[in-house]
Amino acid sequence: MERLQKVIAHAGIASRRKAEQLILEGKVKVNGEVVKELGTKITDNDRVEVEGVQIEKEAPVYYLFYKPRGVISAVTDDKGRKTVTDFFPHSEERIYPVGRLDYETTGLLLITNDGEFANILTHPKYEIEKTYVAKIKGIPIREALKKLERGVQLEDGKTAPARVKMTSVDRKKGTSIIEIGIHEGRNRQVRRMFEAIGHEVLKLKRERFAFLDLHGLNTGDARELTPHEVKQLRALAEHGK
Ligand code: URA
Is residue 132 exposed (0-12), middle (13-18) or buried (19+ Cβ within 10 Å)? Predict the structure, then answer.
């Protein structure tokens, strides 16, 4: 389900604001009926006409992108910083990231123009596992890692159970590398989880999103998802895994 004004904007007919205006002016029909409600949600099966002309949906595209550091997970940035879409200069579609990674975080980010796909993959209800590797300050004790596994109290509530594994320790430098798998996608969640147990995250990388990894890609590279991978992701979300 997607908002009508977003569908019109994505079809390249008008900006989001202009689309809202067209709806309010009664120039938009859904399945033959004029719709003037801005909040109206429609599905892929609904037929939308703008000023009597049926809109064509863009063909969906799906990319797996290896986000570098110093890039914003957004389509534009008012401070002029690099955004993920700068890495797709030849894309004619209105693509955007599925969820987000912080400016400093590297790793796997899906990019698409399919809003429904983006919605199901970011909805916490569907519990897709995201795996991160964090380099942290200090060497956490076992009990602290257990806390992360069980869930820690953050400002916006307790985190869901996580998978946590210490992979290495540098005693000289006093740092550790921890792999952590979470099913939610709250703002700066992994950094805040480590803060909650008293360890600052020095570096963060998302290595996996469900069964997908960064194999064969360097930072800044992207590849298209195969139709089978897209189907598998939808199936995972539907089965709540
Ligand atoms: N958790 C974080 O803290 N940052 C990210 O970019 C992703 C998850």
Answer: buried
Residues spanned by the domain of 11? 2-54
Residues 154 and 173 in one domain: yes
Beta bridge partners, 170, equal 175
Does the CB atom of residue 188 touch ligand 1 within 6 A?
Answer: yes
* Alpha helices (H) in 125-169, listed in sequence order: 142-150
194-203, pLDDT tens digit by residue? 999 999 999 9
Q: Are residues 76 and 115 in the same domain?
A: yes
Task: Reply yes or no on whether the pLDDT at 240 is more than 70.
Answer: no
| pLDDT score at 11 | 80
Whether 142 and 154 map to the same domain: the answer is yes
Number of domains in the chain: 3
Helix, strand or coil, per DSSP, at residue 148: helix
Q: Are residues 231 and 161 in the same domain?
A: no
Which of 44, 46, 86, 102 does the annotation list as catalytic? 102
The answer to whether residue 74 scores a pLDDT higher than 60 is yes
Q: What phi and psi, each to the nearest 5 degrees, are found at residue 149?
A: -65, -40
Q: Within 13 A of 19's CA, how many CA atoms are on the CB side? A: 21
Nearest to 10 by CA among 99, 65, 92: 92
Q: Among positive and negative, which fits the CA dihedral 142, 144, 149, 150?
A: positive
Band (241; pLDDT cuts 50, 70, 90): very low
Q: Evaluate: CB of 191 within 6 angstroms of ligand 1.
A: yes
